[in-house]
Amino acid sequence: MPGSGISPAARTVDRQAVEAAMRATPVLIRGGPGLGKTRLARRIHEGSDRSAAPFAIADAQRAPLCWQELQSAALTAGEGSLLIVGIDRLGPELQDFVMAMLSAPPFRLMATAGSARDTLRPDLDAALRAHEIVVPPLVDRPEDTVWLAARLFPALNARRPAPLVGITASAEDAIRAYDWPGNGRELRARLLRAVEAATGEMILPADLFPEWAGDEAIRPLSEVRDTAERVQIAAALERTQGQTAEAAKLLRVSRTTLWEKMQKLGL
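Predicted structure:
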């Protein structure tokens, strides 16, 4: 069952996570905010031979860490896994401390970071690069946004006194078309608000994006057409596992036409 999404990029992340679970080397998970990097690290731990041991977290993302907190998390991890969230936010002294711990650690080190690498000392960067997983933003994989919304909806819907029927096709189109700068975290927040605020039987685009209400909800036909084509092309590529020739046959266009549209739509 997919854990990160249904797009080719998400499947690559899932495959890399399975491979990481089979190794004992450090793991670095890179990506923007709201992409589930901590959850992915936990999946790697639970799929490894250390799953019976603790999974300890030292979070430098929310607040600066001191070496005592980092040492305490390492002791808690024992022979399990230690996850340092936001390792790129550690200062030079704490990076030195991490390198010292890596000399003979009983635990398996995992870490999350943003896209930049220049904040890590070179030897720590090299140690973490042994197994690096990059999680792409949702804007680069719109098919995963609807998949994620479908996964989140049942639990959120169960909180309502009168559960909703589902999400309309037009709301799904709006989900695909949106850029999601906050990634999965923003999607969950908008979906939660939509489930709580919806007055009909199903979620509408205006429930998810109230700021689009009124005239702003009217979109140019060219934008609507591009959105529809993007959805169909992505679905065809998914069904054919990225084979453009086969996807062109499904879409009943030439391979050249499909390639041109893929370039235009950023697929």
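Summary: The first strand starts at residue 27 and ends at 30.
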